[in-house]
Amino acid sequence: MALIDARTLSGHDAIESDLCIVGAGAAGLAIASQLADSGLRIALLESGGLNPDPKTQSLYTGQMVGQPDAELHQSRLRYFGGTTNHWSAHVRPLEPIDFDSRAWIPHSGWPIGLSDLAPYYARAREFLHLPVTAFDLRARAQAIRHQPWVFPEDRVLTQVIQIVTKKHRRLGRTLRYRIRASRSIRTYLFANVLRLHTSESGKRITKLTIGTLNGRRLSARARHYVLAMGGIENARLLLLSSQEGLGRDGGLVGRFFANHLEAGVGQLVPGGKHRTEFYWKRGPAAQSYAALRLARGTLAAGKLANCRIQMIPARPKRASGLDLDIARVVADTDAMSAGRLGLAGGKHAPSLNLHAIVEPVPNPDSRVRLGSERDIFGQRKVALDWRLSDFDSASLHRTLDQLAVEVGASGFGRINDLFPEDGFRSVDPRGSFHHMGTTRMHSDPGKGVVDADCRMHGSTNLHIAGSSVFPTYGTANPTFTILALAFRLAERLKDLLT
Ligand SMILES: Cc1cc2nc3c(=O)[nH]c(=O)nc-3n(C[C@H](O)[C@H](O)[C@H](O)COP(=O)(O)OP(=O)(O)OC[C@H]3O[C@@H](n4cnc5c(N)ncnc54)[C@H](O)[C@@H]3O)c2cc1C
Asked: What pTM did the predictor assign?
């Protein structure tokens, strides 16, 4: 039985292991499960229990001091399985361009490329029980019997986003038994890591302090440590440990916080006989949907950030309870012809709503700070200063202009009511609950917090897992890349420890 309630331990019970993983969400569970048969001694420290409890969840409260968004205790879940206990499970790998250093996007560029992650993306696909053909255009076309639009010279591309089945998406539930059965892993529930301690030189983590809500103080010692507490909390713990030389004020820890922006950005009226089902239709054979994005050359020519545009059939009035196929039937009626290129759609035209997911550009002033409020342990809570830049808004505006031109020129339809020039001032964007960037990866210690292996610069034994290491953010939902990086890190840790 390797599930231990940390509240029952005494202060003398130091937790000793080869590898200590903090956080049992997507990243922490992926690493632990990968090493479950390794024979290593692994301590998995998790703040919550196997089920949600309000007192532990309240440790996630904090202040939003920048762009308004969902409250911090609502956008994250603090128990075994982490935020995957309520994620939507839409997944896709990043695009090759997302890893590139792009001259028109300051601070862009990963020290690794898509080819470095490809084998681990394959493992992430298996881990989530997705078919080999996930993300494949032809497979989706066959499954739903509709084709994607093809644009000349690939100026606009179609991409498939996969949805993990209900059976496999709650990682805390699906992995609980495997983690519990492992002889290598001891999972400590209700164990809140409060501080990291370093050796005199600051190069090595020597131990962690753990607090429990019933007042116990414990410590954990390991040869190597991984922080896997999510995109905000990873930075918070480093900032809280600044007396140890980690996350000093003015440094990079906590900076470059990003969240994908989502906004309704216009309507598309399909033209002529062109069908749109490829983009939105789902069914038992296709747990996926598709989106449009500008191709690399078009992005480079326009100096644009990445952006994906989804089409959502506008439901006819009082259509609640009807499924999307009803919207398709409506789209097939005479009104369809009114959507031909160059003709006014008219108020009865069967338009589709356009929904954008925008890649924000890296912004050092957008950051996780420590606020003045304190939690039950007396630890400073997060003050999240999320900032958008004018580039984000201008890039989206120009992307939609470009897309409207391409869609119109190809005869696929026309795009109306576009995102306005004054951008996010008039269209209220939302965050996607994708917390990224606060411990960014760069091979230069002056420009990043972790190196290409997710090891903290200047430390010999501290690694970071999760989207906090993303130096740029693409438009893909982050968890697929979190998993791929976690599997890569697990392999590296195994090499270091055996
Ligand atoms: C409503 C919603 C929908 C989403 N939909 C999608 C989607 O469709 N696709 C997608 O890719 N992503 C989606 N996400 C984001 C996704 O949930 C996260 O990217 C993912 O869960 C991050 O994994 P993680 O392991 O880094 O963090 P988490 O899953 O948040 O896990 C962190 C773990 O660390 C623990 N922890 C925190 N602090 C401490 C501490 N001090 N001591 C010990 N343990 C600690 C927590 O209890 C938690 O278990 C969604 C998020 C939300 C809120």
From this structure: 0.94
